[in-house]
Amino acid sequence: MKLAMIGFGQAGGKIVDKFVEYDRETGSNVVRSAIAVNTAKADLAGLEHVPERNRVLIGQARVKGHGVGADNELGAEIAEEDIDEIQGAIDHVPVHEVDAFLVVAGMGGGTGSGGAPVLAGHLKRIYTEPVYGLGVLPAEDEGGIYTLNAARSFKTFVDEVDNLLVFDNDAWRETGESVRGGYDRINEEIVRRFGILFSAGEVQEGQEVAESVVDSSEIINTLSCGGVSTVGYATEEVETAGGGLLGRFSETDLDATETTNRITSLVRKAALGRLTLPCEVRSTDRSLVVMSGPNDHLNRKGIERGRKWLENETASMEVRGGDYPMSGTDRVAAVTLLSGVTDVPRIKDLQSVAVETKDNLEDIEEESEENLESLVRDESDELEALF
Ligand code: GDP
Questions:
Q1: Are 337 and 166 a contacting pair, CB within 8 Å?
Q2: Residue 324: in which H helix or E strand, if any?
Q3: What ranges does the record list as Acidic residues composition bias (predicted)?
Q4: Binding positions
Q5: ipTM of the complex
């Protein structure tokens, strides 16, 4: 599947940057265009793989290249005001060659949190291609403001995109890790999962043709139920025949039952293990299984069994599946896309913390207004202001 990716804000830009790197390393040809949009000049300068001409600095008149802090209302306003500048970069995207747009942002901050939903709505009005969002939830310990921002952005973003793929930083943080080191690792996890998912349907150069290929239309169909999606992933190392004469015989030598069992067990691990957004698997509307790995370690029977298992687990008839053979790897991996999930306790928790924060902020604001008033006014209110 070919995507035009737009990273909004710092997290969005860094994740798109990583996608470009992954695309080059694996030759997967998924990222047809990569654009980064930000109100902070320094964040754009820190990117390594998004081409310079595709880095768009917005809001210069308002914030002079210094970012919006964590003010996502300002982020949204600036995106509205400067939408033509963003469109200027999108005008260079060969839209007839892309299957969809992917707008990526951290939902807890300001620029991406406010701007990404504005851009998604704009793209939907202009283009017929689907517009997907990849939204990152903040970790719980980032604090109330980030949670409030994320809850409001989530509500807005879901409405503006054809499907919102969610990644929850909280489910992926590890204790004792520096913030920067943590994000680098987390971004790799993000890109690996979504990379394999979106690579399906793209044939690499010199790649063998899959037995049951996943086409980009199957990804689109899975996502077309709308709402919120989450992705699971599991992988296992396998012995490869190492080419040469041995390579030719490897297919017949491999134990087909072992291959089938490995695939079904990986599908199970992917769906029941750590998802990008933890949720009740049973609340899934549509799903997709993609198996990747060396061609001789993939088979139709395994995928069919994995698909049937997921059908049962999600209580849904709409389970698609296929393989994506990759050369030069000794790992077999399963990616499960669970689309239109509705039972997500993490979102409910996020919303209740957000409401609490909003109430607290209102109380604090009211109190400080009263305090200022009593400071400025003399006791008997005799002094008059000049004007
Ligand atoms: P913005 O530049 O104003 O859009 O805000 P940021 O993107 O810097 O931060 C928004 C949120 O994204 C933060 O609260 C973090 O939860 C998250 N975040 C920031 N940087 C990264 C990153 O590199 N990777 C991931 N996964 N999350 C990030």
A1: no
A2: strand 319-325
A3: 362-372
A4: 10-14, 110-112, 142, 169, 187
A5: 0.99
> How many degrees, rounded to 5, is the angle at CA 44 between CA 140 and CA 107?
25
Q: Which residue in the block uniquely carries the two structure tokens 């997709």?
A: 288
Write the single-letter amino acid at 74. Answer: L
Q: Using a 6 Å cutoff on CB, does residue 187 contact ligand 1?
A: yes
Distance spanning both ends of the chain, measured CA to CA: 64
Q: Any idea of the CA torsion for 233, 238, 242, 247, to the nearest 10 degrees? A: -100
Task: Please name each of the domains of the chain with its CATH number.
Answer: 3-199 (3.40.50.1440), 225-339 (3.30.1330.20)
C-beta of 39 in contact with ligand 1 (< 6 A) = no
Q: What are the backbone angles phi and psi of residue 179, rounded to the nearest 5°?
A: -60, -45
Indicate which residue's Cα is closest to atom 27 of ligand 1.
11
Residue 221 contacts by C-beta under 8 Å, 6 or more apart in sequence? 286, 320
Between these two residues, 250 and 310, which has the higher pLDDT value?
310
> Which runs of consecutive H residues, i.e. helices, occur in the chain?
9-26, 41-45, 60-63, 72-81, 83-90, 111-126, 144-160, 169-172, 179-199, 216-223, 244-253, 256-272, 300-314, 345-376
Report the atom number in ligand 1 closest to the C-alpha of 8: 4
Distance CA(310)–CA(289), nearest Å, equals 9
pLDDT band, residue 288 (cuts 50/70/90): very high
Residue 131 forms beta bridges with which residues?
A: 101
Given a contact cutoff of 8 angstroms between Cβ atoms, the answer to whether 305 and 263 are in contact is: yes
Cβ atoms of 186 and 14 closer than 8 Å: no
Packing angle of the helix pair 144-160, 345-376 (nearest 10 deg) = 120
Cα 109 to ligand 1 centre (Å): 6
110 within ligand 1 shell (Cβ under 6 A)? yes
CA dihedral 165, 166, 172, 178 (to 10 degrees): 100
Task: Tell me what pLDDT residue 176 has.
Answer: 77
- Determine if ligand 1 sits within 6 Å of the CB of residue 135: no
